[in-house]
Amino acid sequence: QVQLVESGGGLVQPGGSLRLSCVASGDIGDRNTMGWFRQAPGKQRELVAHVTNDGNTNYEDLMEDRFTVSRDNAKNTVYLQMDRLQPEDTAVYYCFLRSPPTNQYWGQGTQVTVSS
């Protein structure tokens, strides 16, 4: 069983920054991809970014301009550094982990609200 626990969400003013963290525990395997989706009110869940265990990153269009995904394999942790946040970034951010062959796990989500 794999568990993912997110932290770091909150309220921030436009133009501010937040850093999300997600710690994985359990049988996550040696080869996996960890990353982040987000879901805004009334919208579908969308990919933000992910990173493989060997450091390859992938971002949804335009996300790389302000967001940076990284991970610390020794800590089984993935991070999302979010800069120059805008109100449209308001969403619940979900951590995920994918491992072969078809396993996918989700965190409980952390709320990010960008408002003045």
Question: Could you characterize the architecture of this molecule?
Answer:
The chain has 116 residues and is mostly beta strands. 0% of the residues lie in helices and 56% in strands. It is built from no helices and eleven strands. It has strands at 2-7, 10-12, 18-26, 33-39, 46-52, 57-59, 67-72, 77-82, 91-99, 103-106, 110-114. The strands form two sheets. Strands 2, 4, 5, 6, 9, 10 and 11 form a seven-stranded mixed sheet that branches. A hairpin with a 6-residue loop joins strand 4 and strand 5. The protein is globular. The model has no long low-confidence stretch (mean pLDDT 95).
Secondary structure layout:
Elements: E1 2-7, E2 10-12, E3 18-26, E4 33-39, E5 46-52, E6 57-59, E7 67-72, E8 77-82, E9 91-99, E10 103-106, E11 110-114
Parallel strand pairs: 2-11
Antiparallel strand pairs: 1-3, 3-8, 4-5, 4-9, 5-6, 7-8, 9-10, 9-11
